[in-house]
Description:
Shape: elongated
CATH superfamily of the domain at 26-155 and 181-238: Spore Coat Polysaccharide Biosynthesis Protein SpsA, Chain A
CATH class of the domain at 26-155 and 181-238: Alpha Beta
Strand content: 5-15%
Amino acid sequence: MNPVIILFALLLVILALGILQAGRKYDHQTLTFSILIACRNEEKNLPKLFQSLQQLDYPSDKYEIILADDDSVDSTRDLIADFCRKADNRQFLPLRRNNQTKSGKKTALQAAAEKARGEILLFTDADCQVPSGWLQGYNKYFSPATGMVIGVIMISFRGFGKFRSLVTAAINAATAGLNFAFSASGGNLAIRKTVWKEIGGYESITHHVAGDDKLMVRMIRQSGWQINFNSGNPVLTSVPEPVDFPAQQQRKFGKFSMHPPVYKAAAVIVFLFYLYLPCYLAAYPHTLTLLPYLGGLLIFWGVTLYKFKVKFQILDIFFLLIYPYYMIIFSIWGLRRSWSWKP
């Protein structure tokens, strides 16, 4: 038996165990939330977002919604203003771009966080739709020692997009369950406000155009606060526009330099394994030593489907085989670091 393949299969099984352990729930009084959303030319997405926010099943005096507009040039501002006029727990924060002030998503969210009054800062994106039990779900995952809770983002259509969402959720769950949280999805993320202030919020990382999710996880982990995982109440996100898709994936995977040494070492090991795998197959095309790897892969994916209550699709087998190389390609491309927030 090939020891390299056996060790990698064991790694997949360990990740599967991490997924199963992720998401400890707690019983306590009702927390207060501040929902923070940064917007930039989102007139097409806001109606669905607003509809979902209006259906939140939580006491209205226990949460507020703060929408920060980053100098939109379409009808975004008018839509936000109209939405906020309809309820006392909604706040519109208009921002202007100029040569003297900073701009961008993190700046907008930082401004919103400074206005927030809730115990928990809850982040989502303008192209998302939140479930009605969203706040109730997050309320169960915070203990007094919890500084951050990572949530799940799901692409609202089937195929490779949904598969990618599941893999991201699985990796975030696995690492959180193993107590070394790796990353988070910025469109479904909760942070205790006192912790936010302790680490300096986005003010300490505004010089980074992308990667705020990973950097925030890293800072909170280093501060000694616990990071939990919310395996329920996934947030749906709209389909990325085709013209932005390559750049979006480049931003997602091209953050190698932002990780601490242990994560960089793990990334290099994964990269080398998947370069080694086709070479090994070419040399030994009839060998059965791939069975441990395939078994570990199926265990990892089976646990993922079970955890997130998703049905198996026959295309999953094909996606499982190509996804590592898809990830490697965009990770290498992302090293160019030519990222930007919406113009």
